[in-house]
Amino acid sequence: MKKIIALTLGIIFSLNNMTVAQAGSPLSGNDIQHFMNAMKPLQKLGKKHNFEENSQAFTAGSNMNGFSPMTNSLEIIKSHEAYGEFKKIIRGAGFSNADEWASTGDRIMKAYMSLKMNEQMTPEKILEMQKGIEEVKNNEYLSPEMKKQILNSLGMAISMGGNMSEEDKADRQTLKPYLAKLDRLFEEAK
Description:
Blueprint: H1 2-16, H2 29-48, H3 52-60, H4 69-78, H5 83-93, H6 98-120, H7 123-137, H8 144-159, H9 166-175, H10 179-189
Helix pairs in contact: 1-8, 2-5, 3-4, 4-6, 6-9, 7-8
């Protein structure tokens, strides 16, 4: 049961945060390449400067609705002394401005996470989640509100992929050939 609750809470977090405002056309291979070009230099910038203070101030005063990790990062770095270096890096990677980097990065991260979640949704996992639904329904220790949220999230996770916008589907398709390279870059960033 603990395993199901942990899985469910992870899904709740992921699904509740996967609402990114999308800007018109689907991602292109160039968009993805520009994002990847910026990753290592931005990682070095992050190691060089302490963004923690700015991050805590931003987190304390913000409502981080929506899945927008790059936009949230941009808000943090805008008030940091390293913002000039940051802008140079993203321009050098092929972006025309910081907002373009952030919105493109948010879309890439959304497509990436969606693809990774779908990889993990094996028939066994779906069956396990369906059992979890029954356990949640019968759990006398969860409030009705918590049950509703967990059940909605489990249902969305099980049906994920079928109710995506055409633009989300196109972004995922464009990202697929870059998945292995992104996996490596994210692994190196740890």
